[in-house]
Amino acid sequence: MSDPTLEQELASILQSNFTAICCQTVICGILLYDYILTFGKEVELVWQRPTRALGGTVIFFLNRVVAVGMIILGNLNTDLARYTYASCNYSVIFDVAITLLAYAVWAAVSAIRVHALTRRYWPLTLLTLALALLPPAVDIWLSSTMTFSIAPLGPLVLCMESSPVSTQLNTK
Q1: Closest by alpha carbon to 96, among 169, 163, 30?
Q2: For residue 118, is it within any domain?
Q3: Which domain holds residue 104?
């Protein structure tokens, strides 16, 4: 006999997974559409023109890497029946790495904007950079406390991550 609670939990997980896959597909489509529309101008304005602002080109490139990395991550390991400990571990590490890179790019862009808007006032620029780098620092600390496990649930294998840090502290 089948357990109705297990069936409801499986249905809920599969529905959530399906919704996540649909959302990722839409995001991929929109990002691809944007890249196709703007590729000509991107090549002309960013890659062909010699520029003194090499930092801007590097930040633009890193922003593209982050976007593509997040898309790859979103489509990685969506098959809930084939998780292994290694794939669980590596997908979470890849997620943390891409998220940290995104935070770093956003912190750099924020600091550059403040630097330009305050007419090169370094104390405010450095304060903005320091405050923008606090979330990645906290994420690095939280990630260092994580442990991973594989949890079978009926025909599915779920990637579970846990941390000794309380949920209340994690969400504040």
Answers
A1: 163
A2: yes
A3: 53-171
Cα–Cα separations (whole angstroms), residue 164 to 69, 90, 143, 154: 28, 20, 11, 27
Tokens representing 140 are 């690095």
Q: What is the pLDDT of residues 99-123, one digit of tens each?
A: 898 899 999 989 989 998 999 999 9
Q: Compute the average pLDDT of residues 126-135.
A: 95
Measure the N-to-C terminal CA separation of the chain; round to a whole number of Å: 43
**101 inside domain:** yes
Does residue 33 sit within a domain?
A: no
- Strand pairing of 156-162 and 147-153? antiparallel
Token pair in block for residue 79: 């098959």
* Measured CA angle at 135 (ends 149, 84), to 5 deg: 15
Domain-located, residue 105: yes
